[in-house]
């Protein structure tokens, strides 16, 4: 399975709310919220990463996203542009964002995931052409 196929599987599982399957994550998986995200921090190891992600999800009465573009990078990483939509539990405010994820791999396993609230932050950080 190539990295894009792996990510499509991950996004499909997570999109259905299935977070218990971690066969695709490296044991030392790291989840990081990039500057500009509503949450902050870096979480190391599968259990800690799940704690960070669960903390994020707990803030939303509804949360959905759709990967709309996969961009393989020369160094083996993969940038993914995401359309997100959520409704805050505390305020009822709707959030729509053109976000991005940056994935790193070790062999066939996802090693790191950096979450960007704004697609342009990843584009700028990597020096990609904005599309």
Protein described:
The protein has 131 residues and is of the alpha+beta class. It has one domain: Nuclear Transport Factor 2, Chain: A (Roll). It has 3 helices and 6 strands; from the N terminus they run H-E-E-H-E-E-E-E-H. A 6-stranded mixed β-sheet has the order 2-1-6-5-4-3, with helices on both faces. The longest helix is centred in the first third of the chain and has 13 residues. The radius of gyration is 14 Å and the shape is globular.
How would you summarize what this structure contains?
The chain is α+β, with helices and mostly antiparallel strands. 25% of the residues lie in helices and 44% in strands.
Q: What is the annotated CATH architecture?
A: Roll
Residue-averaged pLDDT, rounded? 87
| Sheet with the most strands: spatial strand order | 2-1-6-5-4-3
The fraction of residues in strands falls at: 35-45%
Category from helices, strands and their pairing: alpha+beta
Give a quick account of the main beta sheet: strands, pairing sense, barrel closure.
6 strands, mixed
Number of helices: 3
The N- and C-terminal alpha carbons lie at a distance of 27 Å
The number of distinct β-strands equals: 6
Low-confidence runs of at least 5 consecutive residues: none
- Total number of distinct structural domains: 1
Shape: globular
Radius of gyration: 14 Å
Using the coordinates above, name the CATH class: Alpha Beta
Task: State the order of secondary-structure elements, H for helix, E for strand.
Answer: HEEHEEEEH
Residues in helix, %: 25-40%
């Amino acid at each position: 399975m190539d990295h894009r196929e792996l990510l499509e599987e991950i996004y499909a599982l997570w999109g259905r709310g299935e977070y218990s399957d971690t066969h695709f994550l490296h044991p030392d998986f790291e989840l990081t919220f990039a500057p500009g995200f509503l949450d902050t921090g870096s979480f190391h190891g599968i259990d800690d990463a799940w704690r960070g992600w669960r903390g994020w999800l707990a803030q939303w009465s509804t949360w959905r996203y759709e990967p709309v573009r996969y961009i393989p990078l020369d160094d083996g990483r993969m940038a993914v542009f995401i359309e997100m939509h959520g409704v805050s539990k505390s305020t009822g405010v709707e959030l729509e964002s053109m976000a991005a994820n940056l994935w790193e791999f070790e062999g066939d396993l996802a090693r790191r995931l950096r979450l960007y609230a704004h697609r342009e932050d990843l584009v700028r950080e990597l020096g990609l052409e904005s599309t």
